[in-house]
Each structure stands twice: as C-alpha cells, then as structure tokens.
C-alpha cells in the first residue's frame, strides 16, 4: 500500500487558543488511507478543537497541518470540503425546512447544462443521485421529504450520504453513536468499514471503548490539549488507554454499595401517552437505584419526562410517598419531592449562559427568598455549600455554566437538584459526555445518596453503567416495560434480549 | 485544560468567591453604566451650553412628554428579556383612549367608571396577545404586528369621526399639575411607583429570575419548574394594562382622543428599551438601564429642540444610537473576554446560539 | 446490513406531484380568499372590477406593496427583517421629485435606475451592518428606519413634491396600461417572477432558505452567509427604492411622510402569505398574494358594507388568522412527516 507512506491527514503540534484559554496545546495525529483511526480523550482534552481545525471552523495558531502530504490552511469549512474533508458532528446539523436531497447537496448543488438551464439547479440529477446514495447505504428515506421530523439516526445517515457524495478522502465522525440504538450502530459500522475498504481515511471519536475496539485499527490518545500516544488497537488494552487518557489511576468505576431498601417512594400505575408508551407501571423504593434500560427511542426518556411532568400524559397515575403527583406540572412534582436531571445538559439541565450560583439556586428560590424578595447574595450563599459538596470546579459562583467542562456542568445540575432535598431523583444519562474521572465521582455520589435513603431512577444507554449501579433493572421496549430484573440476575445478555426481543407477547 | 479536569482533594476547594470580577469592574463595565454615563454627560452638557435648558419648563416638559413611553417601557423590558416582543402597545394605548372617550362622550358613563373599564379593556387586549403567544405558541413578532393593526383598527372603528374632546377638568388637570412647588408633574408619582414595582419584580423576585431564565433557555426554565407559559402570559397582560393606563394619561393630557393617538409609540418604546441595554435575543438587560435609555432620548430631544433643531434630528440620533449600541455591545463582550479574571479556566468555547426561536 | 433494500421511488409522476403540491399549498388558500373577496365586492358593485378604473385600480394599487413584500420576503426567509423599507421608499420618492425639479427632461429609465440605485445603497448599509457586524436585523433596521426618515425630514422639511413638479410623461406612466394591465403592475410582476425563479431554482436562492432554516448549520456547511444576507438586504433596499419611484408615478406627490408605516404592512403581507417569520419556509408568490389581499381588502370593505373605519381591525384580524392557520397547518405537517418516517422504518 503506497498510502502507508504518506498519511492522508497529518497534524503536528497544532495549537489553538481563545483569548487566554488554551483549547489545544499540541495536537498531533496521522491517519493513513484505508484505516479507521480512533481519537480518544476525556472531555476538554482538545479532540473537538482538533477536529474543528481540520474542518476549517477554526484556524490554528501554530503547528503543521498536511493533507495528502501537502501543507494546508483552511480559512473556511468550504475550503476543507473542497479538499475532501467531511466531518460528521455529534449533533447532525440539517436544515429542517429543506428537502433531504437539498440537505445533501447544499452549497454545491449540480447545475444544469445548456444555455438556458446553465444557472439553475438540476433537480432531477440531484434527486437521482440522492436515491442512489440511499440505495447504497440500504436505507429507506424519501429524498424529497423535508428533513423536519427525521430521527437522529436518519439524520446521521443523511450526514454520511453527504460525506460519500463529496467523495471525501477523509471522514471524521465526532461521537456519531451517542444517540444511536444497537442496530443503527451496526449499520453505521458496516458503512464505515465499506468506506475504509475503498481506501478512505476515517477518524472516529468515541467515549465507548467497546466500539473503539470493534471498529478501529489505530488509536490516538489526547490529554489536556496534547498528543499522548498512538497504538495499534490490537496491541493495546482498554485499561492502558484509560490510564493514558486520565494520566492517573482511576478507582473503581462503579463503586456500588448495597443500601437498605425502604418504603415505596415512587409508584407509577398504567402510565400512557399515545404513540410513545403504554401500560407503564413500576415502583421505586427508598435507597433503591432502579435502572431504566432499553434502546434509544424505546420510550425511556419519555416515561421519565411524563413522570416528572415536563410532558403531559394521557392516562395513568403517579404517586410520590403516598401522595398523588399532579400531571404536567413540574412545579407540583418538585413540591412533592421529585428531582430530574435531564438528558440534555446544555439545553434542559442548565441555563447554560447563566451563572453557576444562580443555576444551583434556581429550584430553591422560593425557599431562600424572604417575604417574596430574593437577592444575588442569598442565591450565592445558598449555592455555596452545594458547590462545595459536589466539588464543582469553578473560580467563582458568577462564572457562566457554559465555560465549564461537561463533567462540572453535570455536577452543577445534580447540585441544583440535591439542594431541593428530594425524595426521588430521576437521572437521565447521568454520565453522557463526561470524562472518566468525573464519571466515577458521579457514580460514587449516586451510591452514597441511595445509602442515605434517596430513591433513584436512572436511565442509561450504557449497559455497564446500568448493570454496575442499579439494584433492579427495568427494560423498556417499544414503550412498554418488558422485564424487571434484580441486580444479581441481570446480565448483559438478558437485558439486551429484553430490549430487542421481537414482539411475540407484546400487545 | 489541566486545572479543570484534574481531581483535587475537596479541602482545597472551600469557600467559593461569589464574583470573578471586583466590584468596580462589575458596576462600571456594563451597558447600564454606559447608558447612565451617557445620560449624565448629555444632561450636564445641555445645562452648560444649551440656552434655556436650565429653565423651569425643561424638566417639567420632559417628564410630561415621556411618561407614557417610560410607562410602556417597564413591561416591555421584561417581555424583551424573555425573548418576546410587543409591537401592539401603542395601538392598545390608542384604543384605550378611544374607548374611554367614547364611553364618556357618547354613552354618558362617568369618567371614573370609564377609566376603570378602560383598564379592564387593557387587560383583555394584553391577554389576547398573551394567550396567542404563551398558550398557542405563536411568534410574538407576528402576533403583535397583527394586533397592532387590529387594535388600531378598533380605535378607528370606535371613534369614527376624528376627535373626541372635553373631559372632566378635575381629572384632566390632575396628571399635569405640579407636585408642590417643584417642576415635576403629578403623573410622575404613579410612574415612579410602577418603576419601583417593576424594578423589584424583575431584579428581586423569583418571578424576575424566571423571566431571565426564559430568555436564556426556555427549555431549561421549564425543566426547573418555571411556568414559562404563565410568565409570558402575565407579562403581556401587564403590558396591556400599562399601555391602557398610558392611554388614559395621554387622553387626559391632550383632553382628546383621536384615531392616531400614540401612533408610532411602539417603536419609540422598543428603541428606548434596546438602547437601555436589553438584548433583543432575551436574557440580559436591567430596568435602570432602560429608564436611563428613555431619559437619554428625552433629554436629547429637549436639548435639540431648544437649540432650534427640528424633531428629525432626534430621529437620526435615535437611529444612530440604536445601531451603535448593538455594534458596541458585540465589541464590548469581546473586549470583556480579554480582561483578567481570577485565573481563567475555560476549556470550552460555547457557541452561543443567536437564534431567537427554534422552529 | 441488507443490501437488497431499495429506496421507494415516488409512485407519483412529476405532473401529479406538482398538482398535489399546488392543491395543498398555502398560497392557493390565500389566493382563494383574495378571489372570493373580489367576487363578493364585484357582485355588490360591478364597477369594482368591471369598469376601466376599477379594473385598473384592482391591479395597480397593490403594485407598490407588492415590491416591498417581495423584498421583505427575501430578507425574512433568511431569518432577518427589514423595517427600514418605508423610509427608503420615502427617500427615493422625494429624490425622484428632486431629480425632475432639477431637470424635467430626465429620461424615465434613468429615474428608475436612480431609484433602484439609491435604494440599493441604503439597503447595502443595512446589509453591511447586519452581515458583517453580526448584529440583529430588527434593531439595526429599526435604527436605520429612524435615521433614514430623519434624514428625509431634514431634507424635505415641510416641502412637498407636487404634480406640477412631475413631467407629464412620467405621471402618465403611473396609470398607463398595456393590454389593459397597468405598466407598473407589469414591472412589479416581472420582478416577482425573476425573484421567484431565482429563489426556486438557483443555488443562491436555496442557500437563502438554508440560512433562515438554521443559521448555525449554514456556517458549518461553508455557505457564505454574510454575502447572501448582504445580498438580501441590497435587494430589499433596491425594491423599496423602485417602489418609491412607483409611488411618485402613481400619486404624483412626495413629502417627508411618504411611505411611513409601510414597513409593517410589508411584513404583514409576507406573514399573511404564509412565510414563516423566523425564516426557512414560504414562497415569494405567497408574499405577493398577501400584498394583493391586504390592499384589495381595504378597497373592498366599504363596498361590502363594512365602514372603512373598521378596515384596520379586519386587516389585523386577517393577520392573526393567517398566523393561527399557519400554526395549525405546520403542526399537521410535522405530524404527517413523523408518521411517514415511522412507516418507512417499519418497512425497513
């Protein structure tokens, strides 16, 4: 292979700062043709900045950047695209109002030939090519429909179709599997492998080591904005990678202690929302961590949202500590003693442009206000012990939450809810997008809280997390609870089976 | 970066300071301080170099003329901070004046009763806006362009002929009479009370905190138990009520109600609010800045008139100030990022979304 | 991964598809309302359409708002707004008068060109501020609305351009007809056709939609957002400038207040025409029909027995109705699209 001599992408000591903030100190990466290269590192290690430099979103401050052996310097994403670089971001960025086809070809729509039609878009050719792309990917998506209403997985596929149609020689995927279910991941991997076999270079960023080991051939580790190491996947182990990522020893990732299980705290009976879930009944007891497992899209988050009342539901009852909880009324749920750490930290969990202190105090305002009046001083005073308790790393309480790492943001969200002194904590994807170190901290905290008698309902797409932390696993499939497995009986196999089993008994 | 993600023992982390910048930076490096400074500079300059600006009528006229704008700017500030807008305020003002005038002059209702009924009308008109925006979920920009036309149309329909005049002098004189021997008209009393009420509401209550949170992130506010829809609804109701109060004042001051009463005020109100440092995208701004913004325009206007400049010059200046204020605020925020904080520890550059509303 | 799956080709022919799209379109519904109003007014009074003047006015009166609505639509589709168009119209109208006062023999074509140019320059100022300083268009154009109007008032004072200042041939153009269709309307429709064709078939047109649909994504796609938005404001300004020339030709007058309040009418026409106020969707045809509807309803109401004092209220109600209708339609559409997705997934 001649490609082995000249890497498709080569970065050496690339740096990038924003004002006083160094986002990338010394990033290096070499990716050869016909390979899938994993890029791993904790959040804030500089992976995303590195990717954005390659994509032309940011311009590097220093270091070398070569593509196919040629030094390059992209001033815009258009230039990187022309050079054959395609980037699939974690969250697909599609135009909801435009058709699927237009989304694929935006910015480079084929023009017709001929005198009159030379300046107009050749819509026929465009749709035909989109159809051909989807055929190749083996998916059913009507190219003429608007992107509005497509699932994340479909949107991901459109991003990939876009990359293929660009005939990109370098394809970078930034955590593409974060929102995908099992078979969608399998489909994505099949496509990735076939692209590799065509001789393209792929960079795959993921927090899931099983995926790295399954898909990639080489792995580069980054830490604190710098390059650490590159190894062949076959010649390394998960614990070696983790050690390099963290740069220190990580304690037990799932420090679960057995807590005394008490009274029923949450009692959900026959909860139903048409089209999402139905006949959902379960209980969570004091001191118990109940894991809600299942594929993405099975209805887990929807159930949690309905229980807490941010969404309305059609039928059923929710009872907390013996008292009925009003439907579609988060305030009522909070008053009853519920807390909810949602899935999307930046949009739902936090007022991301708000200060750390005000975020922490945001749910307990009625308690800290005196005769209806509240001051910033009282908010910060109320927030301080909770920031302390969770070891939130910030320089001052008026710093914007947006300036913190994902792990620290999650701590702020948890602090905000613990401040309400809840009886039940619902936590959706507790460690998504959080670095390994903070992950263990969050797990230790959950375990501790359960030990103090808090009832916890935990939703997670990471099977090891569910199996490691939950006293009991409820499996959701197609909007129904299909299994209730005790901690000692739960295995990856029986949970996955319950999550994916075809519906022979269902409805 | 290294410092943020490294695990350190909790003992080194005791006692977070509340603020990352010192008190001088906090008080002076913001839009509100800039507007207040501009107000002071313009006022002092006018006192010194504009003839008759120090005369007894200047203050009186400024307060008399700009009270309605100031009134409507109070709820408008809160509405814009939630990321919405109310373009219908001037039409609400107009229809309120017309409604009250018609009740008194054509139906013989006594003025006090008519005024109470008018305030109820203001609440209803505000509630219509609020219902469509908060509960039906329509974009306020479009809704209130519609009610701008609708309410103005109702005023025209109510008045039909051109002008209604001649109200009870007892009521008519009250707002414009001076307080004691000062140059302050009595309308300033209710205006000041309302300004304090709105200031406390926005800056020192949980409701006000919710207003900011809605502007910064409506979804996060909803997830934290803020009743987003009810908050917006109430704000539009307040806006309707205050606009109709302003309508009564304008009617009494001019001793008449016409189809064009208050026409074009909505853009003046919004211009003052934006000039006062409120972000059109919501989430930031403060009421003292807005009050300074209204007064800045008022003082400029008065000084220019006394210098024999036409009213068009103030228009040009308002326009340029608006443009300059948004451009400077985008510079100011970049500048502020460069100032030293207690050791910067940012490790993510947040792509602040400038989208007003998701589709 | 199974490779035997095929994307289902649309079962409809291109013609059928175009027909169903047309029949379901938002533009058709508003056009029907327009036609019904014209019919109702005509039944009540035949001269509304069936007279020389009635026919002419039906087509001519909306032509000014038509131009503003077309320009406004192009700006709104990029998730911006241009509130300065009324002031721009006033400035070019007054400038047109001044040109004729200075030289009554100025060729008409030159006057049109001057109007377009002045408008384009003023639009470019808006575009420059919005696109290159990345500041909100609502605030910037509110500012330039004041500044432009103030400048005009400063220039014009209480002076008026009157019919006597306007050469006869230009004034005649205001009412001239070609095959019974007023020339100004023909120009307006030609502009509409060109802009509509561009938005529908050119890369630039589709990019304008993309920018309004998701500005952040547009940056990531490497679209030249600044240039497109700048272009949209230049177009809006130029068309407002052209509308200023129209306004002089039609009404033979211009003064400091010419075009006041037209900016909100232009936005209203666009909204009535089904263009989303936050960009990304809608058509220029809809905006044009919205402009015709707004103007026509004002003429028709007195005939239909509704006192003209209530016209404003009816127009306001119409705007609210249009927004509510759009919400209902878009909710239904989103629902259908999600369902369509589920169906294909089950098949797959």
TrEMBL record, chain A:
All copies of domain ABC transporter, residue ranges: 9-249, 259-503
Descriptive protein name: Sugar ABC transporter ATP-binding protein
Subcellular location: Cell membrane
Family matches, as InterPro entries: AAA+_ATPase (IPR003593), ABC_carbohydrate_import_ATPase (IPR050107), ABC_transporter-like_ATP-bd (IPR003439), ABC_transporter-like_CS (IPR017871), P-loop_NTPase (IPR027417)
Gene Ontology MF terms in the entry: ATP binding; ATP hydrolysis activity
Organism: Nocardioides islandensis
A Pfam family the protein falls into: ABC_tran
Membrane topology: Peripheral membrane protein
Keywords assigned: ATP-binding, Cell membrane, Membrane, Nucleotide-binding, Repeat, Sugar transport, Translocase, Transport
Any one GO cellular component localisation term in the record: plasma membrane
Domain of life: Bacteria
From TrEMBL, chain B:
Cell compartments where the protein resides: Cell membrane
Membrane spanning residue stretches: 33-53, 65-81, 116-138, 187-212, 233-251, 263-282, 289-307, 313-332
One Pfam family named in its UniProt record: BPD_transp_2
Topology within the bilayer: Multi-pass membrane protein
Keyword annotations: Cell inner membrane, Cell membrane, Membrane, Transmembrane, Transmembrane helix, Transport
Source organism: Nocardioides islandensis
InterPro entries for this protein: ABC_transp_permease
One GO term describing the cellular component: plasma membrane
GO molecular function, one term: transmembrane transporter activity
Keyword Transmembrane helix: yes
Protein name (Swiss-Prot/TrEMBL): Autoinducer 2 import system permease protein LsrD
Predominant place of localization: membrane
UniProtKB/TrEMBL annotation, chain C:
Membrane disposition: Multi-pass membrane protein
Gene Ontology cellular-component annotations: plasma membrane
Keyword line: Cell inner membrane, Cell membrane, Membrane, Transmembrane, Transmembrane helix, Transport
Subcellular location: Cell membrane
Xref: InterPro entries: ABC_transp_permease
Key word Magnesium present: no
GO molecular function terms attached to this record: transmembrane transporter activity
Domain of life: Bacteria
Stretches that traverse the bilayer: 28-47, 59-77, 108-125, 131-152, 178-199, 229-252, 264-297, 309-329
Function, in words: Part of the ABC transporter complex LsrABCD involved in autoinducer 2 (AI-2) import. Probably responsible for the translocation of the substrate across the membrane.
Oligomeric and partner information: The complex is composed of two ATP-binding proteins (LsrA), two transmembrane proteins (LsrC and LsrD) and a solute-binding protein (LsrB).
The name this protein goes by in its record: Autoinducer 2 import system permease protein LsrC
Organism: Nocardioides islandensis
